[in-house]
Amino acid sequence: MKNQQIPYKTYLEFNEIPKQWYNLRADMKNKPAPLLNPGTHQPMKAEELAPVFCEELIKQELDNDTPYFDIPDEIYEFYQMFRPSPLVRAYFLEKKLGTPAKIYYKFEGNNTSGSHKLNSAVAQAYYAKKQGLKGVTTETGAGQWGTALSMACSFFGLDCKVYMVKVSYEQKPFRREVMRTYGASVVPSPSNETNIGRKINAEHPGTTGSLGCAISEAVEVATSTPGYRYVLGSVLNQVLLHQSIIGLETKAALDKLGEKADIIIGCAGGGSNLGGLIAPFMGEKLRGEADYRIIAVEPASCPSLTRGVYAYDFCDTGMVCPLAKMYTLGSDFIPAPNHAGGLRYHGMSSILSQLYDDGLMEAVSAKQTDVFEAAELFARVEGILPAPESSHAIKAAVDEALKCKETGEEKTIVFGLTGTGYFDMVAYEKFHDGKMDDYIPTDEELAAYREKLPKID
Ligand SMILES: *Cc1c(COP(=O)(O)O)cnc(C)c1O
């Protein structure tokens, strides 16, 4: 390490930050399946989406052909607060593992929201403001998305209403107060403010809520309040487009170092950080210019890619959202209480689902305790205390690096370190006290949820 040729951290110069987002769909031969109207089962048209989403974001959502979108100046300016993010050569982790592999990670946790979600939050808030809207509604589970959106809304002077899954609202009071610091109003979901919330509370007294339920509430309020729209922090095509900044920066930094990735790894909840990280690399792969192994890592407790089915499904519990074709466990699926809150969604981005179905990407799942073991190893050598979600990628990167140790191959591994875990210390505590469990759903359980998928021909 004494004579290292490559710096520990590589930052692009500010004017080297990409000025356009890359739309991976433009290079996909098999395009992701369109969103369907839940009533007619016909592809959703822009005018049908207009009561829910901002106009410019609908254009981005439906555009499968335009390869590049200019990043508006206002967004580029905001990026100065936290971009470029560093590409780090994990020398200390390599040394600890004794691997001949080179390991790099792209660190997105260097902002108050503590995750990559700010990349899309700032874009979505900007377009809402530009459209002259008063505010936006959203849901949040673990709280990273709600925090990122609160930050972006306060910057652009927009009202922000967050429906926070009740169990998180009660267990994560600090996240809630961060959001309120940025001026957001935070409501525990299910609430008694909406029809769907009242219905769910009546049917399931004492329920602690779910992400699917909070989405339904946020959509209901957005569509019934003049001057408001709904925004979502993952899964959607537009979110992957905004997150392509992660991959474009990573590619630019690797090019600068004269390095080429062999394996690219990311954790996958709804698929936004992974979709963003791999975008330019997958583009090269689709155009036949280069080849990469790309690996999605999901929790064994919520295994949508590795054990789900590729089918049309509802995006929320209240069934008010359009149907999306994706790898899914079923919209009623409630994962066991896993500590990676950001990876507990029942479905997966349509873009990643199609790429996976076409065999262009691999997927693995990881058990919670193995993930925390990798997290702790990483924290001790690289310094950063990782989010449980991000640690799924660490786990897979360590596994690949250890394989290289066996074979003696000097592969270059790049993974996405999506965020920090300071708000997840209760989970770390459980791990340290040996009280963390590894519940994995049985085939019978998964089959029962599959039965309930909507029938679409
Ligand atoms: C939300 C979140 C994720 C998972 O979301 P994706 O849309 O799959 O990227 C991963 N890591 C962190 C830190 C998150 O906040």
Bound molecules: pyridoxal-5'-phosphate
**Cα distance spanning the termini:** 59 Å
Percentage of residues in DSSP E strands: 15-25%
Uncertain stretches of 5 or more adjacent residues: none
Q: Which outline best applies?
A: globular
* Whole-number mean pLDDT: 95
A few lines on this structure:
The chain has 457 residues and is α/β, with parallel strands linked by helices.
Summarize the topology.
Layout: E1 9-10, E2 20-22, H1 46-49, H2 55-62, E3 68-70, H3 73-79, E4 87-89, H4 91-97, E5 102-107, H5 118-130, E6 135-140, H6 144-156, E7 159-165, H7 166-171, H8 173-181, E8 185-189, H9 195-203, H10 211-224, E9 228-230, H11 237-257, E10 263-267, H12 272-286, E11 293-299, H13 304-307, E12 309-314, E13 323-328, H14 350-357, E14 362-366, H15 368-382, H16 388-407, E15 412-417, H17 425-432, H18 443-451
Parallel strand pairs: 5-15, 6-7, 6-9, 7-8, 10-11, 10-15, 11-14
Antiparallel strand pairs: 1-4, 2-3, 4-5, 12-13
This protein binds pyridoxal-5'-phosphate.
Structural key phrases:
457 residues; 7-stranded mixed sheet; 4-stranded parallel sheet; 18 helices; 16% strand; globular; binds pyridoxal-5'-phosphate
